[in-house]
Specification:
heterodimer; A: about 450 residues; alpha/beta; 2 domains; 10-stranded mixed sheet; B: alpha+beta; 4 helices; about 20% helix; about 30% strand
């Protein structure tokens, strides 16, 4: 007898970025609840409450798709976008998967409605990044006649994305409606990006000088959720009274901070581009309601000209591509090139950080040399994530067209993948703080970063 | 068993009698509309009953306007049940009256027609079961002939399983 066997793809323990599937207490509890659900008899019917749907509703920033994958509820080879588009078609569908995807659909719809006053197009696409950034799901959306309702429909998935708008790999094997949705989301002027229940809109036709969101923005957002917003015990969370995003671009990071760090009553975003400040302001209030006891200011200025002091949480995703030697210094700051903001931020950290303040920075290993040289006395930095950093595509056309610049960056660590014909670099995420004195209140967070990275912590400077 | 469903509704958001009018406008334009069942959170969704009723394709079910004690006959051609009690938006925004497209409901019913009927039509049925209700509070009604709008309105249920006498 011929027995047909399928070689099962093994379940991965970590995403392509190295984020473990079993990372936090919420993941461990999720695994337990999934197991309980699988053992429940009779199986919960559609439409009715279940332990899983109640658990999922407690975590608005989580989609739990990775948890289902890790618990083998979603098969290793499954197309998550296809699962999402099937969810309401049949009541015989796996109830755990369907409940998870319905919760995600509902949150995306809520997110979209929050953007409805921001002049987004009536129909289009949303680029949604899952928890741990292991998938990018591209959704079609449309608003109802009165803009009081919206619907979303998953059209395509991009596996292991290492670039925000990964057009080539996304489009290659797609047809019909999937291709149309991808074009809407990736190619047209309106860019709508959602991650962890925060949604941002950038009109690329108008907001040319607005930086991001980039894949690095999302990696930093994921890290902030894991180590600050989601993980930190309430008492530790309450230590953050002020937060600032330096070089805010589209404002995704400060918007998420406003949503999930309620203790921060003074929030600020600084960017030298007026278009970026306007975009940050729009996206901040698309995700946060005005609050009488809370102040958010968006400042159009170079960071060195601001007078921010005693900041408890600073976030910065600065330009990080070093200019080749001999290049004339740019007079106008750019969103991508130069390392001035990176150097200046770390150099002046002792002036603007509070004694317990933390500065989260994400930048490329290509700029590591400049960063290391700029770390001042009295500041300690710890690396978050893999020692080598998070590997992402390098897609800066200006650089790729300049051979001598490329060669300069190759010497700095830019690597060329001959199989895919694509350059890659590594993102380094660093948390910086003043040297710990007696009574330093964020030890717990730093210890957690150390523990969860499995010894990845590395001290720089100091 | 010739079985059917009865659902109760009220013009809570719309003006009096407008609920039916707004749904019928959409039926005239598109050939069908989506009707959201505003069930109580304490009620269960009778998923098996919906499946059974729709197994042979379309089915006539009944609606009671409990604000005006008026009955309607609706031709049910489909149902969408959300995976969880969180509910889901209507399957088609444009085929649902705009006054409640922003809501998430657990069950959306697809109606091809809605017509007013006389109360005596309902009196040809008896109560088969109370599939949404978790307690046995209404079990003594099982098998009893439906006597009319007032009797139905006294129960706290929003969906009844009926069988022809």
């Amino acid at each position: 007898m011929h027995v047909r066997t399928h070689e099962m793809k093994p379940i991965l323990r970590c995403t392509h970025f190295g984020f473990p599937y079993e990372w936090t207490d919420a993941d461990k509890t999720a695994a337990r609840v999934i197991k309980e659900m699988q053992e429940l008899r009779p199986v919960p019917k559609f439409g009715n409450p279940s332990p899983w749907s109640q658990y999922v509703s407690k975590y608005p920033t989580r989609d739990f798709l990775g948890d289902l994958y890790y618990a083998k509820v979603i098969p290793p080879d499954a197309d998550w976008a296809r699962l999402a588009s099937l969810q309401l078609r049949t009541v015989n569908h796996n109830v755990i998967v369907a409940q998870t995807l319905q919760a995600l659909d509902n949150r995306l719809t809520d997110n979209l409605l929050r953007l409805s006053s921001a002049h987004v197009s009536h129909e289009g696409g949303i680029i949604y990044y899952t928890d741990r950034l292991d998938r990018c799901l591209v959704y079609d959306y449309s608003f109802g006649r009165a803009n009081t309702a919206a619907r979303v429909n998953a059209a395509a998935q991009i596996l292991n994305p290492d670039l925000l708008y990964d057009v080539d790999s996304a489009m290659s094997d797609k047809e019909g409606p999937s291709r149309r949705a991808l074009k809407n989301a990736l190619v047209f002027g309106h860019k709508i990006v959602a991650h962890r229940n925060t949604i941002v809109h950038v009109d690329r036709r108008r907001d040319e000088s607005v930086a991001g969101p980039y894949i690095d923005t999302l990696v930093l957002n994921e890290i902030l959720h894991r180590y600050i917003y989601e993980r930190t015990r309430e008492d530790a969370k309450n230590q953050f009274l002020s937060a600032v995003e330096i070089g805010s671009g589209c404002g995704l990071l400060i918007a998420a901070c406003g949503q999930y760090l309620p203790s921060a009553i003074h929030l600020a975003a600084v960017d030298p581009s007026m278009a970026a400040v306007a975009c940050t302001h729009k996206n901040f209030f698309a995700n946060n309601r005005p609050h009488a006891k809370r102040r958010f200011i968006a400042i159009c200025s170079k960071f060195e000209d601001t007078d921010l002091k005693k900041v408890d949480l600073a976030i910065c995703n600065p330009p990080y591509i070093p200019e080749r030697p001999g290049t004339r210094k740019r007079t106008v700051p750019t969103a991508n090139f130069g390392t001035e903001l990176l150097e200046q931020t770390i150099r002046t950290a002792p002036n603007f950080l509070s004694d317990n303040g933390l500065l989260f920075l994400i930048f490329s290993d290509l700029a590591w040399k400049e960063f290391e040289a700029a770390v001042p006395d009295g500041i300690e930095c710890e690396l978050i994530g893999p020692q080598s950093g998070f590997r992402v595509q390098f897609d800066q056309t200006d650089v790729l067209e300049d051979e001598s610049w490329i060669q300069f960056l190759v010497d700095r660590g830019l690597d060329f993948d001959r199989a895919t014909n694509v350059y890659h670099h590594h993102l380094k995420c660093v948390v910086a703080h003043k040297s710990r004195q007696h009574g330093f209140r964020n030890d717990q967070i730093l210890e957690r970063i150390n523990l969860l990275n499995g010894g990845f912590r590395k001290q720089v400077g100091g | 068993m010739d079985e059917t469903l009865l659902l109760v509704f009220r013009d809570l958001v719309t003006l009096s009698h407008q609920t039916i009018g707004l749904h019928n406008e959409i039926i005239r334009e598109y050939g069908y509309c989506w009707w959201g069942w505003w069930k109580k959170p304490i009620e269960d969704v009778p998923t098996d009953l919906f499946e059974r009723i729709l197994a042979e394709g379309g089915k006539t079910i009944y609606l009671l306007d409990c604000g005006n004690y008026l009955f309607y006959r609706a031709h049910l051609t489909g149902v969408k049940i959300a995976p969880s009690e969180e509910g889901s938006p209507t399957p088609e925004l444009e085929r649902t009256p705009s006054y409640y497209t922003h809501l998430r409901l657990v069950v959306w019913l697809k109606f091809a027609s809605i017509q007013a009927i006389d109360e005596k039509v309902i009196k040809q049925f008896k109560y088969a079961s109370f599939p949404t209700w978790r307690s046995h509070a209404y079990d003594h009604y099982k098998g009893k002939t439906v006597s009319g709008a007032e009797e139905i309105d006294e129960m706290r249920v929003t969906l009844w399983h009926l069988a022809r006498k």
